[in-house]
Specification:
The chain is mainly β. It has four helices and 28 strands. A hairpin with a 2-residue loop joins strand 4 and strand 5.
Length: about 400
């Protein structure tokens, strides 16, 4: 865990960029597909599946790959990093890199030379993929690849996502609690001697099916910079305020790109109605840095020292689809300025909405059919954050 925090803190200091890591990880950041260069692969089981979860060995960030340019059976499996083999068995092995992370490769036949303590180099062959019938692989020949924290002499702990130093073939695969996240992504391996990480891009997180985002452009999209703007003369001074998210990014990336006197941000979780805090100066909050955010979400931000500041509104209205969970959901309105009744008119099972006003440091409220003296929110402006409470979970498409 300490090595993860060190890695993430370096990532944060670099304002979300890639960092240099000594030893067996590319200076450009990232890891290749564990297979020969030029072979093509597809993700058949992504993050958060029935067998990739905290309930299944703490590996929600594991990925399963099948080959798409030829049969997967007996394809050579290559080391994705320099490191030391710390475990092997009849169907897999782990390679611990210079940062102390264990790269787990399963459903493969390890080469005869593989033994504990063996030093391997990135690109070295370490085994071959088992066909169906040779291993318990769910009836599909594939490579299971996950990067685990380690503890107590090399025992596997919870996985980490393929981001930053461990971006997969240059793509950052951020975590989000969507089922089978990153399913269907395709990669061409560049693994081999003298490997250099491709230029990193950010893999966007999957939205619910109703989203109209162009899937083809989503498969590999670089994060755009936040718009620059002038802080309004009447902006509130210091303290807490809610901030809408208008593009896909990580928590650390949002913090860096807001370019404001912020001391911390706080992320709300609708499931459980709890919060996670991110402070770039606090190692205890480093795990939150890599959390995935997407357009239509919102966070709390604390402005210190007490100066005037408001986040920039979205450059233009956009249609987004959000998953709303039963209870309260902190979201942001991405459409044009609109009356709250119109903006929330297509929210299924809507109970009420409420919003924090940083100017007066008070709460405002709105409920369908509520009396005027109670309904103190009249308009949602583009980028406004608001809590939306629903009686039953559903998906909500914001209509520009």
């Amino acid at each position: 865990m300490q090595s993860l925090r060190r890695c993430l803190l370096l990532l944060i200091v670099g304002l979300g960029g890639l960092v240099m890591v000594p030893g067996g990880v590319s200076a450009g950041g990232g890891v290749p597909i564990p297979a020969p260069a030029g072979t093509t692969w597809s993700v058949v089981a992504g993050y958060n599946t029935g067998t990739h979860s905290d309930h299944d060995g703490g590996d929600p960030h594991a990925l399963d790959f099948v080959r798409t340019d030829a049969p997967t059976d007996w394809t050579p499996v290559l080391a994705p990093v320099d490191g030391v083999v710390t475990w092997f068995d009849y169907n897999g092995l782990t390679i611990v890199d210079a940062n102390g992370y264990a790269h787990l490769l399963v459903h493969i036949d390890p080469d005869e030379r593989i033994q504990r303590g063996l030093t391997v180099k990135l690109g070295d062959q370490v085994g071959r993929v088992f066909p169906v019938g040779y291993d318990v692989n769910g009836g599909v020949a594939h490579i299971h690849y996950a990067i685990h924290n380690t503890r107590g002499g090399g025992y596997l702990d919870r996985t980490i996502p393929f981001i930053g130093t461990y971006a997969l073939e240059g793509r950052e695969l951020f975590w989000q609690d969507e089922y089978n996240l990153h399913f269907g992504l395709e990669f061409t391996s560049t693994n081999g001697p003298n490997w250099t990480a491709p230029r990193a891009t950010t893999q966007v997180a999957a939205d619910p099916p109703a989203d109209t985002t162009d899937a083809a452009s989503d498969s590999q999209t670089a994060v755009d910079p936040e718009p620059t703007w002038t802080v309004p003369a009447d902006a509130p001074i210091g303290g807490w305020r809610t901030v809408g998210v208008s593009r896909r990014t990580s928590v650390a990336g949002l913090f860096a790109n807001l370019d404001a006197p912020l001391s911390e941000v706080v992320v709300h979780h609708a499931v459980g109605n709890d919060y996670d805090r991110f402070d770039p100066a606090d190692p205890e909050s480093a795990d939150v840095a890599v959390r995935s955010l997407h357009a239509g979400q919102a966070v709390w931000a604390r402005v210190l020292p007490d100066t005037r500041w408001l986040p920039a509104p979205p450059t233009e209205p956009q249609q987004v689809t959000l998953r709303l969970y039963r209870g309260t959901n902190l979201v942001s309105w991405q459409g044009p300025d609109r009356s709250i009744a119109q903006a929330l008119g297509n929210v299924a099972h809507l109970s009420h909405a409420y919003q924090y006003d940083p100017y007066t440091k008070t709460w405002r409220f709105w409920s369908p059919g509520g009396p005027d003296f109670l309904n103190t929110i009249s308009t949602l402006r583009s980028g406004d954050a608001v809590y939306v409470a629903v009686r039953v979970g559903s998906s909500w498409t914001q209509l520009p």
